[in-house]
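This entry is set out below.
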Amino acid sequence: MHITLHLALAAILGFGLSEARQQEHDLAYYIHPCQKSAPNVNECLTYSANHLAMHFRKGIPELGIEEVEPIVIDEINLSLGSGPDGYRATFKDIQAYGVSNLTVNQVRSDLNSLQFQFTFSIPKISAIAHYRSSGVLIMVQATGGGEYWGEYEGVKAKVYIKASEVERNSQKFLQLEDLKMDFSVKDIQMGIKNVHNGNAVLEAALNLFINSNSQELLKEMKPHIKKKLMVAMKSFIDNLFSRVPYDNWVIQ
């Protein structure tokens, strides 16, 4: 995915500040400022977000961002069915690759109320994890553990941010007030391997079930995934807002 031509032209034709104006404000290299009064400010904000994402992939030491991948999630739980035979699985030490290769497709904003909606896409995310499970799955006792792998293609997400202004050292900063997100995945391939005790029947049964019900499984896991992702996202946004003055991003 790449930034569309009209966004690039928008940046060149003046939705940001001139080079001299940028130097005047001593802006960091990962910041592309936008003028609040610009007629197409949302296009500039989209370019600015992609500009930040481009540097995020490489790491931004000034913001304490060194190793950006893998994205690590400590634990996600899955529950199917109820009762003593209900299937339960716990995925731990999840490592996801490809998340930083995102493209911001659109930013919608209300700069007066400091509300922003970001729509972005990720071509592919690869994940690995350790798992343990218990219960019965398609008439097979599924108690055991092993390694999980997943390939998620065509990831699309929306993130909503509500912020407020705070003043510190005669400069305006943003403070996160509300954060929401949702996502979808077009194609999913996933499975397990190296099942504990080499149980080939269990491994075959689990892989058959997983690949036949991948979207349904993602739906069940989604609330846990969103919760974990929002914790990481909030930490990143809080760090960014606290270190970069708002008037460096948006010029009144």
In short: The two ends are 31 Å apart (CA to CA).
